[in-house]
């Protein structure tokens, strides 16, 4: 009687690596069917998960008020000198003033574009380069042609930008 072929189980038409691959494919198929059935059974939860990374992040919860710190009975420390590291830590950050008017992207400078949320100096430079290449933007949707300006970023700034109807730069 002949010995079984090396790498094959007795009476099996497939080698061990082929069986592992078939098993992996079967498991993947079953997991896919399971996910499909779960989504059909819980459509609201599936929609919530789909929207999870598309929505703006929720505002952070306000921190619970901390109990007042107890001071030692000894002499109190002198107030921090202005400009010292301790005074800088205690200083409240001052929010930058925002202009309620929409920004005209056909006339805006690099600094003005860089102040838009999600637009840094490098993306603002690419917007200016695209504006110089095209001559002007016809609509805010034309910003989609700028490398790095995706649909989410465009949706975030759409209410903050506008397009001028007359170009004061004098392009012929």
**Can you tell me the CATH superfamily of the domain at 103-162?**
Photosystem II 12 kDa extrinsic protein
Strand order of the largest sheet: 1-2
Strand content: under 5%
On the 0 to 100 scale, the average pLDDT is 76
Count of strand segments: 2
Largest sheet: 2 strands, parallel
Mass-distribution shape: elongated
Topology:
Elements: H1 16-41, H2 43-51, H3 85-90, E1 103-104, H4 110-114, H5 121-134, H6 151-157, E2 161-162
Parallel strand pairs: 1-2
Task: Give descriptors for this structure.
172 residues, mainly alpha, two-stranded parallel sheet, 39% helix, 2% strand, elongated
Question: What does this 3D model show about the protein?
Answer:
This protein is mostly helical. Among the domains are: 16-51; 103-162, Photosystem II 12 kDa extrinsic protein (DNA polymerase, domain 1). The protein contains six helices and two strands; from the N terminus they run αααβαααβ. It has helices at 16-41, 43-51, 85-90, 110-114, 121-134, 151-157, and strands spanning 103-104, 161-162. The longest helix is centred in the N-terminal third of the chain and has 26 residues, at 16-41. The radius of gyration is 31 Å and the shape is elongated. The termini are far apart. Residues 87-97 and 167-172 have low confidence and may be disordered.
Q: What is shown here, in short?
A:
This protein has 172 residues and is an all-alpha fold.
């Amino acid at each position: 009687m002949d010995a079984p072929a090396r790498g094959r189980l007795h009476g099996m038409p497939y080698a061990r690596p082929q069986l592992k691959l078939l098993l992996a494919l079967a498991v993947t198929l079953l997991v896919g069917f399971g996910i499909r059935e779960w989504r059909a059974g819980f459509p609201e939860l599936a929609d919530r998960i789909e929207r999870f990374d598309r929505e703006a992040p929720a505002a952070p919860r306000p921190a619970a008020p901390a109990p007042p710190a107890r001071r030692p009975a000894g002499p109190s420390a002198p107030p921090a000198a202005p400009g010292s590291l301790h005074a800088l830590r205690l200083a409240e950050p001052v929010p930058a003033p925002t202009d309620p008017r929409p920004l005209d992207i056909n006339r805006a400078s690099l600094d003005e574009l860089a102040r838009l949320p999600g637009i840094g100096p490098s993306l603002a430079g690419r917007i200016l380069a695209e504006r110089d290449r095209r001559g002007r933007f016809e609509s805010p949707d034309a910003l989609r042609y700028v490398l790095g300006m995706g649909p989410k970023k465009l949706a975030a700034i759409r209410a903050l930008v506008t397009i001028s109807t007359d170009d004061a730069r004098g392009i012929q």
